Model the fold of this input.
Amino acid sequence: TTTTTTSTTTTTTTSTTSTTTTSTTTSTTTSTTTSTTTTTGPRVFTTPALGIRDAAADFLYNGGSTNPNGAWSYGCNVGGGNAYSFQPIATRAALSDVQFSFIWSDGTGTCSMWANAGYSTQYGIAPGELALHPGATSGPADDLTQAAILRFTVTTAASYQIKVAVGAGDIGTTHAWVVFNNQVAPQALDMGTSPGSNTIQSLFNPGDTIDLVIGSAGDLLSDNTPVQFIICIGACA
Done:
């Protein structure tokens, strides 16, 4: 008897699958742009909300293009000593040494007012400020001769809040008053020499006038004085 043994050899083939993962890195570059304020073109100014009048903002909005300019009038006192008589300034011109700015003045030695619409402080007046300058023909210290007068004329009967501030400005010394209806004494508010500020609340009727007055304190030179004169129906925010 022959026994045949069959040997079966099983070959196991191991297949190794190689998976290649490609990682793609996306590089995102963020560009940061630095915005630089342009100092070559005219600045854009806006006016306050209804019921609020801001002398500086209203002047800058249109360069004080007319006189009167809405409720505001720009003038000088033509009374001698402490006499008081408002005379509108007739002449407006561009300022040659302050960018984009205009001045109301009737000539050398007379009172003037202007607003700095440029980008740098000039003559003690910062950008965005309104300046009053008494005339260089003023008399003794603290009188009203050739004082600069910024006038608000009331159109609506109401209770008004008046916010007034007077800065140091140029190197000269000035004297400030708030005058109601041309009555200098004793009704005027004497604010003394600049700087100073005050808030007033009072009833006014159509045609009433509220004046911010800047006179020389006697030196007659370099008297550009920055002022804030805001008048609101009811109360200012």
Q: What stands out?
A: Residues 55-62 form the longest helix (8 residues). Residues 174 and 216 are 5 Å apart (CA to CA).
